[in-house]
Amino acid sequence: MTGSYIARIRGALPTLHPSERRLADTILSFPGEIASYSATELAQLANVSNATVTRFVRRLGYENFDQARQAARANQQTGAAVFRVSASGQGPDAALMAQITQGRQNVENSFAAISLAEIDDLADAILHADRVWIIGFRTARAFAAYLGAQIGQTIPNVTELPIAGQTLAESLTSIRTGDVVIVFALRRTVRQLPAVCRELRNTSARAALISDVLPQTGRDVPPIETELSPKWRLRVQTAAPGPLFNHAAVLTLCHILATRVLERSGSAGRKRLLAIEALHDSMDEI
């Protein structure tokens, strides 16, 4: 049997014995829990025997429980939110403080490895680029839109991808050597992102890669740096005590980058801001 361990469980459901089915239902209720439990703890949670757990993981195609737990841990680190849902009885106040603390730690740990010199170098490149392209899929789409809107107050030549109603190919063919491309690669990415990065590398445009890492290993998620060969490599942490990744460091990076673009734009940036405000007044928009 192949596939993720959840897919294996679903595929085996029709053939499971009652005790194994009870174990499967327990795991499917909280798919990520198997990563933190021992075989004995999982057996107690599902009210089955240790022997049932052993038979169950072998029926799924794993040699032993540790192999199944490693597969679950991999899904927990890089998979959907459902793999990170916990049966923890932590109270709401404690849960709130855990989220706030983790967000602060993500920001501090991320910027311990990101220097202002790196950010300023990218900001200067953005100011002198023929066009700035910002690419983000799924959750990263929101950060691409935010960064594009903030930078767009300072410079006029900002395009966010993908564009509604257009294929990626139609947009990628417009990227030139004098452009700057900012790629967000945040968990969980779409399958075509490595292919997009390969095409971006062929354009000779200068690229920045904003990605998160696995806190336990420091490995990139996903490993696309070799596909893109970015000039700027900005890595943020998105660890979270709950099922959803904490993106406080991502938003902070976007804010600082956009701020430095504005601050380093000098009189040209201020002139554009004044022109925007004049139109706001004349059109009574704000």
Please give a structural write-up.
- The chain has 286 residues and is of the alpha/beta class.
- The protein has two domains: 5-84, Arc Repressor Mutant, subunit A (Orthogonal Bundle), CATH 1.10.10.10; 98-283, Rossmann fold.
- It is 53% helix and 10% strand.
- The protein contains 13 helices and six strands.
- The protein has helices at residues 5-12, 18-29, 39-46, 50-59, 65-78, 92-111, 116-128, 139-151, 168-172, 193-203, 225-228, 248-264, 266-283, and strands at 132-135, 158-161, 180-185, 206-213, 220-221, 232-236.
- Strands 1, 2, 3, 4, 5 and 6 form a six-stranded mixed β-sheet that branches.
- Helix 2 packs across helix 3 (39-46), helix 3 (39-46) crosses helix 4 and helix 6 crosses helix 12 (248-264).
- The longest helix has 20 residues, at 92-111.
- The mean pLDDT is 85.
Write the layout of secondary structure elements.
Blueprint: H1 5-12, H2 18-29, H3 39-46, H4 50-59, H5 65-78, H6 92-111, H7 116-128, E1 132-135, H8 139-151, E2 158-161, H9 168-172, E3 180-185, H10 193-203, E4 206-213, E5 220-221, H11 225-228, E6 232-236, H12 248-264, H13 266-283
Parallel strand pairs: 1-2, 1-3, 3-4, 4-6
Antiparallel strand pairs: 4-5
Helix pairs in contact: 2-3, 2-4, 3-4, 6-12, 7-12, 8-12
Organism: Roseinatronobacter domitianus
Pfam families: HTH_6, SIS
Protein name: MurR/RpiR family transcriptional regulator
In short:
The protein is an alpha/beta fold. Helix content is 53%, strand content 10%.
